[in-house]
Amino acid sequence: MSMEQALATFFDEARDLLEEMEVLLLACEKGTADGDSVNALFRAAHTIKGSAGLFGLDEIVRFTHTLESVLDRMRNGELESSSNLIGQLLACRDHIGTLIGAAAGGARPEDAGEHGERLARMLGKHLGEEGAPAPEPAPPAVAPVAQADPMVIGPDHWHLSLRFGPDVLRAGMDPLAFIRYLGTMGELLHVETLADHMPVDASFDPQTCYLGFEIAFRGDVTKEQIESVFEFVRDEAAIRIIPPHSRIEAYIELINSLPEDKVRLGEILVASGTLTRRELDEALRAQELERSAGAGRPLGEMLVDAGIVPEPVVDAALARQKRAEEKRVAEAKTIKVPADRLDQLINLVGELVIAGAAAQLLAGKSRMADVVESASHLLNLVEEVRDTALRLRMVQIGEVFGRFPRVVRDVSRELGKEIELKISGAETELDKSMVERIADPLMHLVRNAIDHGIEPPQTRLARGKPAQGTIVLNAYHESGSVVIEVSDDGGGLDSERILAKAVERGLVAPSQSLTRQEIHRLITEPGFSTAERVTDLSGRGVGMDVVSSNIKALRGSLDIASEPGQGTCMQLCLPLTLAIIDGFLVSVGRAAFVVPLDMVVECIELNDGRQDPDYLNLRGEVLPFVRLKDLFEVEGLPSRRQNVVVVSFAGRKVGLVVDQLMGECQTVIKPLGRLFGKLRGISGSTILGSGEVALILDVPQLVEHAVAREDRAIRSHA
Amino acid sequence: MLSPIKVDNNAGSLLEIAGEMTIYTAAALLKDIDAALAKGGDVELRLGGVTEMDTAGLQLLLLARRRAGARVCVSGRSEAVERALETCRLAPLLDNMPTGGC
Question: B27: helix, coil or strand?
């Protein structure tokens, strides 16, 4: 991997980590964080720091280091979390993002250095505060005069179990000396000398050591250090060192904060300090022996049984191991693929679809049953490949939704409003290219909701509403489209004000009467704004029309529903842009058209003896219809038998009058080119299996056309 | 180095141990203790002159205690003895023994 690639990966991962940090910080603020959150924050900062260090990004390293120290204090309980602190941490996280962005080649704000200094000073205050005083030096090993109760493992005591082995004296060593030495490292709270094995009769050997010792020890030491005291007797002696209960907490914390590359249980335990390397080796050797003898216990069980490691610590290590495993497995489950390679693949699949359709056509003509069957089988497989390939480009909308909690938090704070953001349907998938282009319009709609929709807390209370407003982001699939809703329980659109403003701007004649829907639509006119205050965010009147045209460019639609005093719902309906679609082929005169199949509801015959030239009674429903022959000015006489293809978009149904119904077909959308950009009702073209060109109908536009015509008709009759 | 031992011929025995009470002297001291105990009657162990005491020496004390119970008393503990007893917290064991003039 080249340096550039490695750097690119680092930037990607750093961004992911920063995102994670944001989510965690927001959860901490809300109080929905779990105990591991601060640890996770620390780990994230730590990882960024470490990786930045590898690439020599010193500024990032320095700043992140300070942040990491603060997080360390927090997770040690030396620093208490507070809303203020979280706010500062979020600012720091943002700064890291800025630095990383600048390092990745983006713009570096001029005041970045100064800003960083300020933030660092702010963090420094949290570090400079003297929290816990430095631990007191261990008192000299003067045994307390009063003997404590018999051995109790208190929260602060190490428990040592020493059996020196019979030959220790002959080897020239004295257990008492070891115990005394241990005493210099801390406090020997209790020593129990056990002489159970000492024979009283003639078999007593004065040079054999029969004594064992159970010791309660308190000291600021690691297990390794204690173990090293008995370095020279290790081979013959049975030394068991059990950490104090309070240490168990520390060990568990340490285990949870280990980097993920430690997957083996023994390694995790050693890294946490609850097990010494020597103990691990012994345990592994013992395990080997057990295994070769046919038995064999898991390492964790052995260690707990032998009393070498307390059970809660082993449990924590096992849990950690599982998490690390899961992460590895999950990571192995995804691959990063360059987007253009994916596009290439889909292009090829498109060609495959066309070729397959042509083959099937020819097969049909051959009238050879087995050829037809083979071609059919082939086409089925191609369809599957097509579906799978397209799904590769699908991305969960949650990616975009993810930005909003922070925005809502920051902006509502700025405006002094209390707003809760609810998100549902984050798993709804849509094409990657759409996701990127929908982000800005959504952002604007959410900001509008915050700025103009939700009222200030006092106003809400006065209206009998809860002081906290709610904004809901929702997404779901519906008949071939993706629907995204931004709703709020604020004050709703003020129709009167909108109408007044529209009249003022000359968009509407004063005598015109408009439906409420139409009034709402006015806000998407360019330059329109009823905001009394132009804020930083909205009110300049450049927002809604841009939103509306962005959505139109995606061949989607924007629906506005609002009740004064109750709230507003902005509904975006977007087609699932597919490069390849299942279509329904129809003919009008000599021209062929394809209707996207997922918008087709049903087909019915049209009796020509209809009175009403524009409407059908579809089982009691009024169905407006569009005669494609007229709309597209297709030459030729209307055929005697006509059909109506009923299509649906955004909940509205329209009937398309065509001549013949030709059946289902798979088509690859070929764009028409800019020359035809203004063409309404057509979204693309395709090549049929026969080699002919068919035009793909733009159902949303056709529906809109029909609806607009309906409105005009109503008005002209009004 | 063996240490001089005085043995009284009274009703009880007095065993004065001076010098090292360690693994090097343990075997010999054991013999002396055994001899003193075999005499019957009480045994006083005077430890004022002990210069060094290790685990082996400690074991001897324990052994004496176990074998003879209340018949054994300890007097004049030297600093070395005190230290050894302190390290393993066995002082109470000997505190419970009658001291001097037993």
Answer: helix
